[in-house]
Amino acid sequence: MTDSTNAPEPTLYERVGGAPFFESLTAEFYRGVADDHALRALYPDDELGPAEVRLRMFLEQYWGGPTTYSDERGHPRLRMRHAPYAIDLDMRDRWLRHMEAALLAQDIPRELAEEMWRYFTMAAISMVNVSEGDPVEEAFGQGGGG
């Protein structure tokens, strides 16, 4: 007899169906990217296939699946890896729009989709590296302090 109270909780990777889910998610995401000329221009590869594989491996690892991403590429360092690309609010929103469409195209429970969406939103916000305007003026308004 086994004691199920000591069994680890299944990871999100396992709960969404493992590799087939992430293959479908990233394929759907990159179908959208391929047709978005502004976003597509940020990808240096002639083909999106290598970027699709990297994103799939990263997401699988992040959500509790195989560690292939780190085994092959080292620590994710997302901000550093994206620093060479101008990512403004428009690029963030485009990325999120395609990821949302890809996520909605998957057949997973709503609570899992919401958990993933929270992460995708946070990650996309943190990748923005081009300020639109002066952030100090935006935060404090124009004029003096009195």
Describe this structure in words.
It is built from 9 helices and no strands. By secondary structure, the protein is mainly alpha-helical. The protein has a single domain, classed as Globin-like (Orthogonal Bundle), CATH 1.10.490. The chain starts with 11 loop residues before the first helix and ends in a 6-residue tail after the last helix.
- Choose one word for the global shape: globular
First CA to last CA: what distance?
A: 73 Å
Low-confidence stretches: none
- Quaternary form: single chain
As a percent range, the share of helical residues equals 55-70%
Number of strands: 0
CATH superfamily: Globins
Look at the helices and sheets and give the structural class: mainly alpha
Rg over CA atoms: 18 Å
Mean pLDDT level? 87
Which second-level CATH architecture applies? Orthogonal Bundle
Give me some keywords for this one.
single chain; 146 residues; mainly alpha; Globin-like; globular
What's the quick description here?
This protein is an all-alpha fold.
Question: How are the SSEs ordered, and which strands pair?
Answer:
Blueprint (H helix, E strand, L loop, with lengths): L11 H4 L3 H16 L2 H4 L8 H14 L5 H6 L4 H5 L6 H16 L5 H18 L7 H6 L6
Helix pairs in contact: 2-4, 2-7, 7-8
